[in-house]
Amino acid sequence: MNLIQKLKDYQQLMKLNLSLLVVFSSVVSYLIVPEGEPTITKTLLLFLGGLLVTGAANASNEIWEKEIDQLMRRTMTRPLPEGRMGKMEASLFTALTLFSGLYILHSVFNPLSSILALISYLLYVLVYTPLKTRSPIATLVGAIPGALPCVIGWVASTNHLSSLAAWTLFIIQFFWQFPHFWSIAWVAHEDYERAGMKMLPRHGKVGYFTAFQCVLYSAALIPLSILPSIAGLGSWISIIGLLIAGIWYLYNSILFLKDNSDVKARKVMFASFIYLPVVLISLLLDRYF
How far apart are CA 78 and CA 12, in angstroms? Predict the structure, then answer.
């Protein structure tokens, strides 16, 4: 196997695209702390540390689900199920990235940020991952480590958790995840069902319950749009940015409720990909402009 293919395998193992979005929320949270004094070096090191820990969590997930991934079209070409990489190699890579990421967070920033990162890793790997084949509550559990990166970024700057602003960011990212995950689970339901995963809030693509839940959670993001400004994180730029992104998210969720089709579920999924970057960039612009 050539070097380029091996690098691609490691990229797939750590789900690089997903990891980048997660780490972006952590970095933005670090940068928007009002009393923070970020430097380019520290920002890059936070990015690297977060990427390594997140990549380790995703790699651990793939190790755990190797046999399951062999059953799903969307995952069967990953390096582990296709046999291009063994579990021992993947485990060594995971251990190296995890400890390297935690060391960076601990030594460059503070112990609290590394502890939160470890908690996030353990929740994702040891609780969320096995729950996926047992109960739809897995989505709720997975949303906790999914929202912790913004708190980790905040703590990397402040070294404390007693900030309304940090938990405001957590709440927004927490609610964002439900329509995001459920729309993906709806579109990929046949794959998930074949693998025995219970990712929808109700069994099967039957009725309007899933779409209704997407509407509820995306609607909750509308009033939450003013929370950052209440917490001292911005003013009109962030309010407008969050409202526009939230309304677009809700609009697509309503379309999904009306039509209840894969096409409309996919639109919710794409709206979710737009929502979080728009929110984070709005907060960043509000902080510096």
Answer: 7
